[in-house]
């Protein structure tokens, strides 16, 4: 088993007849009921919700002030800069807003900080650089809400600031011309699920006045940034992302996205949120992780398909380099645990770790050990760290409680960044351990199955195909996880050079093909001839023109009776 805790239903599906009458398959109807959508009207509104889901951008706190200041900049022809972040959300947000402001006639710089030399957020050296170029207004996207000192410094340089962000705020806000962050203390609750690119999109909608036109123009950027930043795919995020993914699938998008999809080998496959999360986002992120965010910016700004293909090839090479670095850091981190399973947050620091890759390794550590992880790259007297949490443990609150031993921090409940003096790394480890152990109400990650499959009628081709109506699936709207118990495990076959498994399972007099990724036969915990329980995602597999139901297994355990 991959998961120690399974939360699985004990009873079979309840299928609302009203949803069957409305045209839903039994499987889709059962899933919709589990998500509180038993009435046809509510279910159809969720499945097919359109422009009515979009909130009024002017309702976001600070938006009116931001629009007024930018409108003045357009009227007077100011030299403006858009200051972003080096991840997918920040890069798509910066490209979106820069393109719009340039279309309004502004001389607009696009500035993405170097992750390795400058780190996250605003810095005074960048402000100096932009001020010396004649910039009089900086608009941040996906960053800035915690940069109080840097905003004050910009004012000293005669540079105004508009902050647009979506990260958690501290008690005080930057003294900027406007702060547009749905999480600021005096927010009215509008837009709290938006990504940084979503907030930037709302800004251009507020300036332009035509959300439909802006969605047609920028939907691909908003969709990719929203999915990559793991924002909830509900409400307006769901509608915007669905529109953007359809634009990319139809080829009606930036040439860079098409070139990257082709280079990643997914151009001719169904284009879903998972395609973005597993194929496009890691490659765009690779540029920022390795200190070359400009490569990703150039890809998204490129209008010539031939040049876009060359840039996409470069990005994929950067991603392969990132993967090699990640593997080496992971190996070293695991060795330093000496085979022990930690009972408190993992805090590790080293001189030679790449600062752009440690966040991915921190995520892998939390997945492997079910505790938060802090990976710190030491450089001189200080270290910059990437932090990831797990279960219900609020990492941002934990770091806030330890803030007196940090030089700086910021982020979310589940992910954050820290700067810590070399001499205080051990103290940070102990402080986080004490905080973690003093909060026993935290929950560990568990495998949560949605539905017990108690009939073969729930796994027909039509039923499995109907789950596509739930797309885009992701945070807040996951692809349903189904549960089957007491299955016969008929065969186990290694595939992919031994990295994955192909299984044959049977129940209800039916035989099912299964695939278990990143699992080996020795680690399976069960063998052919035994009974097993599985949690899985059903999908349609197409091979040599033949279509069949395939079970993509999330976890497997031996049945009590087998």
Rg of Cα set: 25 Å
How many alpha or pi helices? 18
Large-scale geometry: globular
| Sheet with most strands | 5 strands, parallel
- How many beta-strand runs? 18
Instruction: Write down the overall mean pLDDT.
Output: 95
Given helix and strand content, the structural type is alpha/beta
General description of the model:
By secondary structure, this protein is α/β, with parallel strands linked by helices. It contains 18 helices and 18 strands. Strands 3-2-4-5-6 form a 5-stranded parallel beta sheet, with helices on both faces. The protein has a 5-stranded mixed beta sheet with strand order 7-8-9-11-10, with helices on both faces. A hairpin with a 2-residue loop joins strand 15 and strand 16. Helix 5 runs antiparallel to helix 9 and helix 9 packs across helix 12. The longest helix is centred in the middle third of the chain and has 32 residues. The protein is globular, with a radius of gyration of 25 Å. The protein starts with 5 loop residues before the first strand and ends with a strand. The mean pLDDT is 95.
Task: Please provide a brief summary of the model.
By secondary structure, the protein is α/β, with parallel strands linked by helices. It has helices at residues 17-21, 26-34, 40-48, 63-76, 88-103, 124-132, 148-156, 196-208, 211-228, 235-249, 255-263, 273-289, 293-301, 305-336, 358-369, 395-401, 425-437, 461-466; strands spanning 6-7, 79-83, 107-111, 137-140, 160-164, 178-180, 346-350, 373-379, 382-388, 408-411, 415-421, 447-448, 451-452, 482-495, 500-507, 510-516, 531-543, 546-558.
């Amino acid at each position: 088993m991959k998961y120690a805790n399974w939360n699985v239903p004990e009873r079979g599906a309840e299928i609302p007849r009203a949803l069957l009458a409305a045209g839903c398959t039994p499987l889709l109807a059962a899933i919709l009921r589990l998500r509180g959508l038993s009435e046809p009207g509510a279910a159809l509104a969720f499945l097919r919700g359109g422009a009515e889901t979009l909130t009024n951008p002017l309702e976001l706190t600070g938006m009116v002030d931001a629009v007024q200041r930018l409108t003045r900049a357009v009227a007077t022809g100011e030299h403006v800069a858009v200051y972003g972040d080096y991840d997918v959300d920040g890069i798509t947000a910066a490209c979106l807003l820069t393109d719009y402001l340039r279309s309004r006639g502004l001389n607009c710089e696009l500035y993405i900080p170097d992750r390795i030399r400058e780190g996250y957020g605003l810095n005074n050296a960048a402000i100096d650089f932009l001020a010396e170029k004649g910039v009089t207004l900086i608009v941040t996207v996906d960053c800035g809400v915690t940069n109080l000192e840097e905003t004050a410094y910009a004012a000293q340089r005669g540079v105004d600031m508009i902050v647009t962000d979506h990260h958690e705020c501290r008690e005080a806000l930057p003294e900027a011309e406007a702060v547009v962050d749905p999480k600021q203390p005096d927010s009215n609750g509008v837009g709290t699920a938006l990504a940084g690119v979503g907030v930037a999109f709302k800004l251009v909608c507020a300036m332009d006045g035509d959300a439909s036109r802006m969605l047609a123009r920028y939907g691909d950027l908003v969709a990719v940034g929203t999915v990559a930043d793991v924002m909830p795919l509900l409400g307006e995020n769901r509608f915007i992302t669905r529109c953007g993914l359809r634009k990319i699938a139809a080829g009606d998008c930036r040439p860079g996205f098409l070139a990257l999809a082709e280079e990643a080998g997914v151009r001719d496959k169904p284009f879903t949120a998972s395609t973005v999360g597993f194929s496009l986002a890691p490659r765009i992120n690779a540029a920022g992780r390795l200190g070359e965010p400009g490569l990703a910016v150039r890809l998204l700004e490129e209008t010539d398909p031939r040049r876009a293909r060359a840039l996409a090839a470069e990005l994929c090479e950067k991603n392969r380099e990132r993967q090699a670095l990640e593997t080496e850091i992971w190996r070293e981190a695991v060795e330093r645990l000496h085979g022990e399973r930690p009972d408190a947050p993992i805090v590790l620091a080293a001189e030679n770790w790449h600062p752009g890759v440690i966040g991915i390794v921190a995520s892998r550590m939390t997945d492997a050990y079910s505790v938060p992880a802090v990976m710190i790259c030491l450089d001189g007297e200080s270290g910059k760290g990437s932090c990831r949490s797990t279960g219900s443990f609020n990492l941002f609150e934990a770091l806030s409680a330890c803030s007196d031993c940090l030089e700086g921090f910021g982020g979310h409940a589940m992910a954050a960044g820290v700067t810590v003096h070399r001499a205080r790394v051990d103290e940070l480890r102990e402080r986080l351990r004490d905080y973690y152990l003093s909060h026993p109400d935290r929950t560990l990650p568990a495998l949560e199955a949605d539905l017990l499959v108690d009939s073969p009628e729930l796994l027909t081709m039509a039923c499995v195909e109907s789950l596509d109506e739930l797309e885009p699936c992701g945070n807040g709207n996951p692809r349903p996880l189904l549960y089957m118990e007491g299955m016969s495990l008929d065969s186990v076959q290694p595939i992919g050079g031994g990295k994955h498994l192909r299984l044959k399972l049977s129940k209800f007099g039916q035989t099912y093909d299964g695939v278990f990724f990143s699992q080996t036969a020795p680690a399976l915990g069960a063998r052919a001839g035994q009974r097993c329980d599985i949690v899985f995602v059903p999908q349609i597999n197409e091979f040599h023109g033949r279509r069949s139901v395939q079970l993509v297994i999330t976890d497997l355990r031996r049945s009590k009776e087998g």
